[in-house]
Amino acid sequence: MLDMMPAMFRCNAVDGTRAVAVGSLLGLIVLGLLWELWLAPTGSGMLAFKVLPLALPLAGLLKRRMYTYRWVSLLVWLYFIEGVVRASGDRGLSAWLAGLEIVLCLTLFAACALHVRWRFKQAAAGAPT
């Protein structure tokens, strides 16, 4: 039955990890902008520029570039560290936003790692990616 379905309608684990990775990356971008500009701004809002590196891999994730998934899984740890530092040092709303940043970072890392692993398994099995 699945062989009769067009490839664009099939939902598999690789597509699911791609969706989770893109969603959590977009969540980190939106959170960073809202946090620094409206919700709990620090200073003149210049810290909002910290989300610019997160915008760079978005096209690569959408185009399923394996290299992008690999380096995003390393880049995300910088934002994870920021979340841990701010969660332990800030109070109130900022601490909750830092906790959300930590969750989004862990989700993004897990999605990227699983995506790479499952793509390699598919390639080894000879399945189309």
Describe this structure as you would to a colleague.
- With about 130 residues, the chain is mainly α.
- Helix content is about 70%, strand content about 0%.
- Helix 1 (about 15-40) packs antiparallel against helix 5 (about 95-125).
- It is elongated, with a radius of gyration of 17 Å.
Helix/strand/pairing class, anyone?
A: mainly alpha
Structure summary, number of beta strands? 0
Averaged pLDDT:
90
The unreliable regions are none
Number of helices: 5
Envelope shape: elongated
Helix content: over 70%
User: Over all CA atoms, what is the radius of gyration?
Assistant: 17 Å
How far is it from the N-terminal to the C-terminal residue, by CA? Answer: 19 Å
- State the order of secondary-structure elements, H for helix, E for strand: HHHHH
Outline the biggest β-sheet. none
Short note summarizing the structure:
The chain is mainly α and 129 residues long.
Descriptive key words:
129 residues, mainly alpha, 5 helices, 0% strand, elongated
Helices and strands, with pairings:
Blueprint: H1 13-39, H2 52-55, H3 58-62, H4 66-89, H5 93-125
